[in-house]
Amino acid sequence: MKVHSTLGNGFQEVIYQRALANEMEKQGLKFQREMEMKIYYKNNPKIIKS
To answer: Containing H/E element for 46?
Structure first.
């Protein structure tokens, strides 16, 4: 919420992602962006890539 209220509306998603990563790093939080995940849709596993 802090990132969005600081930046406002209208930016591409990647801008918000980078700003959020910056905030999380400042707080010492560990995270991973754009992870690949196996998604099951109608019993058909697919790898969803970022």
So the answer is: strand 44-48
Q: What Cα–Cα distance (Å) separates residue 6 from each residue in 1, 2, 16, 26, 35?
A: 8, 6, 10, 16, 26
State the sign of the Cα–Cα–Cα–Cα dihedral 17, 19, 20, 25.
Answer: positive
Q: Is 24 helix (H, G, I), strand (E, B) or coil?
A: helix
Q: Which domain holds residue 28?
A: 2-48
Residue, of 50 and 31, whose pLDDT is higher:
31
**Single pTM value for the model:** 0.68
Total count of domains within the chain: 1
